[in-house]
Design goal:
5-stranded antiparallel beta sheet, 5 strands, about 10% strand, globular, Nitroreductase/BluB
Length: about 200
């Protein structure tokens, strides 16, 4: 599939068939995801992949699946054959930027006006969403509302203390779904999005 087609076909799908996804497809997807950029080649991004039905239901509960189902009509988190949980490690970046080739001229870690650990996991997620489309599949992204749910998900999946799960990505074969009502907002005008030579 051409890259431009992948980008244009990508959308958040909120209903999946029960058709399984072969393990080799998941391997191909994550081989690409691992090529995402990271500051200082820190590689602070990690993923948990879940396929067990009972575990998917527990994960969906931490994502408030019932609330989503009221709007989108389907339990699309737990029904997806695969869930991917993207995680980032802030401490990995601090450790990397205290190494000799990254400290400033005073031997100190740089200041972080932008938390690149979130930037980098965002890059990984985008590659994942596009790789899924390239394989003829579909995906969504859902948040984990509240600190208690985030902590519960970390405990459920044995995610290390220094790693933060940033959401849950259901992956599967698309079924007819209810488009997000947010799409009614439309895309903003190009002049508001693109600023040439300055704002």
């Amino acid at each position: 599939m051409e890259f431009s087609e992948v980008v244009r076909k990508r959308r958040m799908v909120r209903h999946f068939s029960n058709d399984p996804i072969p393990a080799e497809v998941i391997t191909r997807i994550f081989d690409l995801v691992q090529r995402a950029p990271s500051a200082g080649f820190t590689q602070g991004q990690s993923f948990v992949v879940v396929t067990r039905p009972e575990l998917k239901k527990e994960i969906a509960r931490f994502c408030s699946e019932e609330d989503y189902a009221e709007t989108f009509q389907y339990p699309f988190i737990s029904e997806a054959p695969v869930l991917a949980i993207p995680c980032t490690s802030e401490s990995a970046y601090h450790q990397r930027y205290q190494e000799a080739d990254k400290v400033d001229d005073k031997g100190q870690e740089i200041e972080w006006p932008v938390p690149f650990w979130f930037m980098d996991i965002g890059c990984s997620v985008m590659i994942l969403l596009q790789a899924v489309v390239d394989e003829g599949l579909a995906a969504a992204f859902v948040g984990i509302p509240g600190k208690e749910n985030n902590a519960g998900l970390k405990h459920l999946l044995n995610i290390p203390d220094d790693c933060t799960p940033v959401g849950v990505i259901p992956i599967g074969h698309a079924a007819a779904d209810v488009p997000s009502p947010s799409l009614k907002r439309g895309r903003k005008a190009r002049a508001e999005f693109l600023h040439l030579e300055g704002w």
